[in-house]
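To whoever is covering the structure queue this week,

Two jobs came back overnight. Logging them here so there's a record in the thread.

Job A:
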Amino acid sequence: MFENVRVISFAADKCDDGITVGELLRKNGVSRRLMVKLKRAENGITRFGEHMRTIDRVKAGDVISLKIADEKLLDANPALSAAVAYEDDDVAVFDKPADMPVHPSAKHREDTLGNCFSAMYDGLAFRPINRLDKDTSGLCAVAKNPHAANVLQNEVKKVYYAVVCGKISEDGVIDAPIARAADSVIKRVVREDGQRAVTEYHVIKGNEKYTLLKIILHTGRTHQIRVHFAYIGHPLAGDDFYGGSCEDIEKQALHCGELKFKRVCDGKPVTVVSELREDIKKLLVTSL
């Protein structure tokens, strides 16, 4: 069984002398919600083994430790498989295959990355930092505790790779608002009353039929990449939901190929990469 208790410590330096425990924890990215939970837990917040309140003062050299317990929220499915591309005490980065949803839903109760995570890390809640569509492959970071989830939220930089239909010759930026389609719960469209969405793209190579792009999102709207490229007349190959051709590939040619973030424990930078999946590689070889 995976250990479901994580102890995280923060040292007070000279500039912290005299501030409260709560101020020290907030300075280090601990959420107010987690502090409330730890105050109610036995030995949730300690200094050298002694119970501490958030209103207590710290001195330079004090080490404040948090004992963070977690609980399993999703059913485990040990039959599922997803490679772990990177792991430390606070985060696991999965290389998610296409066809695997991230979250359980009415149609996918036991075949998701969440169910896979629960089988691998018994006792931990599933807290994905970035989310991918079911048929989008690639890197998905999952926090192993609530503190890591809070620190890494909106701090993970992502790079996507996509093959779109048609020829794109120059790099560009798509700045077009996205809203939910009036006749669908799932489908999104570009519409003036939508939320602002910005997609930056760089051409890697291509021909008259397909173009391989490197994509950086400056916002995180549902289906943003798929909607934006359909909007400019270049839907993703394999994405028939938004008008893409499935002649040479059955699933949308979209892959999260790079994640960058700083480690929760010491702030050191981490870069995780993932190769394009085989059906996208085959598409590039045969068509470009």
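Job B:
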Amino acid sequence: MDNNGEPMALAKFLSSALARVRPLPSIDLDLTAACGCVLASDVTAPGPLPAFDHATVDGYAVRMEDVSSATPQRPVSLKVLGDVSAASWRPVRLIEGTCFAVAAGAVLPVGTDTVIPMSWTDEGMAAVQVGQVPKRGHGLRHAGEDAGSGEVLATEGRHITPQLIGLLAAAGVGDVVVRPTPRVVLIATGDELMDTGRVSQPGQLVDANSHALTAAASEAGAHAFRIGICDDEPEALRTVLDDQTLRADFIVTTGGTGTGPGDMVRRTFGRDKTVEFSPVAVYPCSTIGFGSVGPEEVPIACLPGDPGAAMIAFEVLVRPLIMRLAGAEPVFRQSVKANLIEPVTSPSHYREFRPAHVAERRGGGYTVAPLPGGPYTLSGIAQATGLMVLGEKVTTAPAGSTIDVLLFDRHR
């Protein structure tokens, strides 16, 4: 809470939390094992890529001047001096009126400036008839066409994807310096909680939080570990945390952040000041705790128990912190401007994040419509493709107005 007694602005809370978290120390990993990690330093090409001039199609390596007059009616005949396979390494040279049969990937004979595809010839063995001529340079790639020796192939902060691994492997890179994947532990607290497989009833609620947030942490690129349910008992919570701080880079709890008689998390951590619980001007999250626990000072975020509020709090706080630990930039989801399809209202002095359906317009730009029930209707959150962001000064936004929207990753 700010000094004037008002809830803390989200920007101030986020800035303070992000300042306390540093990217994990870098490690050297085998290229394939590094998939999903973030580069901790630039990667440069150890040599030119491709390493040598080579054919990209099966065909005949020729000099353009020898075949430029060829037509289907008057094909040009060339003597075939031999075959060059992808495994060939002996240098060969073209002379006037000759060619070599080459395989895709084969080193080009000296003097080659075009490769004629097999289908454009009679596929002769001792001599070949060329009846169609491509443009000069067809069917081949030159050394260094993708990247020159010493050229930066990938910059620090970039996620390593399968596609990037293909590029680096082709360039001759065997290992890379990366930030390790953050290990995130998820714990739901509350005597009223029970595990999935049963329907909620009075006095018992199904634990949706630890399942949903474990999946969300995994989607954010973390190694996520669901510990499950912890009872509202301080010693039980401390025992769980003592076990988890040895393997976790980040701990997330849900429930117990309020000031009611059963809010054990806040009472437990508030007593020893390891976690600060701040009313944050975010709807619907209200109070969020952040600090560190254990001798290793593992960062911990304590989120509300309501599933919708917990999911929003994850998006605005936990996900950016996971990205910071991983060394990724930017830490926030992509934000776009979108036009409202229908009017909305929002609480004054709070920044609201509301589940919404975002669509791209044919002519460019985006439209956005709020989903029924706001953050408290899980069916609406499940359909959301983004979050509408309504600022602290926005109490009403008419249809057609432009607002900010955070886009979810689209897998559907």
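Note for Job B: DSSP finds eight helices and 28 strands in the chain.

Please reply-all if you pick these up so we don't duplicate work.
Q.
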